[in-house]
Structure of Glucosamine-6-phosphate deaminase:
Amino acid sequence: MKVIVVKTYDEMSREAFSVMKEVVTANPRAVLGLATGSTPIGLYQNMIADHEKNGTSYRGISTVNLDEYAGLDVTSDQSYIYFMRHNLFDHIDVKPENTHIENGKAADRQAECDRYNALLEELPRDIQVLGIGSNGHIAFNEPGTPFGSVTHIVDLTESTIKDNSRMFASIDEVPRQAFTMGLKNIMNAKKILILANGANKAKAVYGLVRGEVTEKVPASILQLHPDCTLICDEAAASLL
Ligand code: F6R
């Protein structure tokens, strides 16, 4: 794993953007695996600024997102599709029909997982962007998730519900379940770019880079990926 330690969140976002720009420039029809959460917002802001200033186009690009809360409608401002539109898609020229995410409202949840797995086979990702949970989760793959997992429904752990409650009016509003790509799906991306900032990620980052490769720390599987780059700030790198 390539590890790049920078001083600030802004620097992390700029470094991440330079990796992303290389992928988009090399292949204007690239498939980008994207994440939600606080961590990649700066990366998305850099992509928007570059699109506006330099005209970098996403017309041929497709995107697939990692995960979506179960039960939330696309119109809910807490849904991950809302997040993606608000923080990226509405500000670049990606075609809406080329942006993909699990349907949180699907009536048949297993059929939705099957649909998404088939889609991921059809759209091999050139890059997968990841954040990391303070418990070492990636996407919503919580500790104990099998390394061979594909898209599935998960019960969120108390620690993830607590971490994510900052985005909701109260902790009771945080959905208890989500759709998520599995660890096997994530590993299938050609390139992985994982970002981490802040002291609350230090333990997880240690597990990601130096810990034992174990299902107890889902991110540790990335040690087995042939092209994985971690960009993190000094606080997140403090235990390395
Ligand atoms: C988001 C996702 C999550 C987050 C992780 C970190 O799509 O899959 O795994 O990447 O929970 O969240 P933040 O960036 O908010 O600290």
Observations:
- The two ends are 13 Å apart (CA to CA).
- The CA atoms of residues 113 and 151 lie 5 Å apart.
